[in-house]
Design goal:
453 residues, alpha+beta, Methylamine Dehydrogenase, Chain H, four-stranded antiparallel sheet, 28 strands
Length: 453
């Protein structure tokens, strides 16, 4: 049988081609596998994961905003009665009820809180209060938060300003039927928005006749209790910083970028009908803008604090219609800490002035403007509200989510000196006995705090 060399050669060629094709495909597959492993290893290294077979722990997701521990939550001081804790956001405003039983606060956490304090009945020997000794009521601001809060004169309602709505909302404060029960707080109604600029102040006259609002754009409005506009005036202070109604319900005053406090009388007829908003008088003497001001309970004194580094106490027990002017009683210097607006409050008994500068509290004598005390670093943020209670025994501050309540120890010490002078001048037996009792109580308080220090 003849051997066909052509078929053999063709077979060898086809076999060789097949071998080359298989080798080529095997090499390409090997390179792809190697490349995939390299990329996987590189990707693992880029993502911060281990390239070994062991499963690595997932990286922790960082929060959008770093949260630091609030060191001020553990603030202590020998004069501190208590720290009111309950809000989870910064407190924006606070106000005492006219009967002195409750403090109302509002905060960025969209809540309102009532704190049953009743300082007038608190025993003078009580040095500290725990939160378990303080009863509270909470209400929520629906779809918004409140920036300002004020009690009605009869303590039966709360007026607030909604942050987003920039309008007044009214809450009813309903008393519990049982004696000593805490009231409940319910939304009643709201007024229509009247100003585009944010309201910086709201107040209610003690007479119950009108409501006052003001904006930084110098828009001062007087409203009736239904929210209807009675009068409006432009304060012409370039920018208004503060506005308040006098405790007697007669005057409205504003302060701002210009170096004076402007005062208007809200005039009503004998039958109770609104007549006009009449320019009354000014408090002059500062050389720069006035951050804030405060009244004495009888409206006969006003205290101011200015960018010029001074505070001033005025006698406002005047008849401006007879041409009488407010006169200076005493002036002192205060220490500015940073560029934050300062707050000022006058003790109801008129003995001391409190100033909140940045995160610190300063207390001065109204007799000679002497600095009596300085308490630093009270809050985690600058002090935004500062108040005395109606007894002058306590000073309240807020600037973060807490309200600090301090014993007014400098006021106690001045009270001892004043009562000693009053006792020496007393002529009647009843007056002497009353002075002796008050002096004994004041001395006991001072001795208690001297012992703590």
């Amino acid at each position: 049988m003849a051997f066909d060399f052509g078929i053999v050669i063709l077979t060898l060629v086809i076999g060789a081609l097949i071998a080359v094709l298989v080798w080529s495909l095997t090499k390409k597959s090997s390179e792809s596998s190697t490349k995939g492993k390299s990329e996987k290893a590189a990707g693992g290294k880029k993502d911060g994961k281990k390239s070994s077979g062991a499963q690595s722990k997932p990286a922790k997701k960082k929060p959008a905003v770093a949260i630091s521990k609030d060191s001020k939550s553990t603030f202590t001081h020998s004069w501190l009665l208590t720290s009111l804790k309950g809000h989870t956001g910064a407190i924006t405003d606070m106000d005492f009820s006219a009967n002195g039983k409750h403090l109302a606060t509002c905060a960025e956490d969209r809540s309102l809180m009532l704190w049953k304090l009743n300082f007038g009945r608190l025993d003078s020997t009580v040095m500290e209060l725990n939160m378990k000794d303080i009863r509270t009521v909470r209400a929520h601001v629906q779809y918004d938060s409140a920036t300002l809060i004020r009690w009605s004169p009869d303590s039966k309602a709360l007026l607030t300003v909604r942050a987003l709505g920039n309008n007044i909302e009214i809450y009813k404060v309903l008393k519990k039927p049982e004696a000593g029960g805490l009231p409940s707080v319910q939304v009643s109604h709201a007024f229509e928005k009247t100003r585009e600029a944010d309201l910086l102040a709201i107040d209610v006259a003690s007479t119950g006749r009108f409501i006052m609002t003001c904006t930084p754009k110098n828009e001062l409005d007087v409203l009736d209790l239904k929210g209807n506009l009675l009068a409006s005036v432009i304060t012409n202070q370039m920018e208004t910083y503060s506005a308040k109604i006098s405790p007697d319900g007669r005057f409205v005053a504003t302060s701002g970028f210009t170096p004076e406090v402007k005062v208007w009388e809200v005039v009503f007829s004998r039958s109770g009908e609104f007549e006009k908003l009449n320019r009354a008088f000014e408090l002059s003497g500062h050389t720069s803008g006035i951050y804030s001001f405060d009244y004495s309970p009888d409206s006969g004194r006003m205290v101011t604090i200015s960018k010029d580094g001074t505070w001033r106490l005025y006698n406002t027990n005047i008849d401006y219609r007879q041409g009488q002017l407010a006169t200076l009683v005493v002036s002192g210097k205060w220490k500015s800490e940073g560029n934050e607006p300062a707050r000022v409050a006058l003790a109801p008994d008129g003995r001391v002035v409190a100033i909140g500068s940045n995160c610190s509290l300063y207390i001065y004598s109204t007799a000679n403007a002497e600095l009596l005390s300085h308490i630093p670093d009270i809050h985690a943020a600058p002090i935004t509200r500062l108040r005395f209670d109606s007894t002058s025994r306590f000073i309240l501050t807020t600037g973060d989510k807490y309200v600090r309540v301090f014993h007014n120890v400098p006021g106690f010490k001045i009270a001892v000196a004043d009562l000693e002078v009053k006792l020496r001048k007393a002529t009647g037996q009843a007056l002497k006995e009353r002075c002796q009792i008050q002096l004994k109580e004041a001395k006991a308080l001072v001795e208690l705090f001297n012992a703590r220090n």
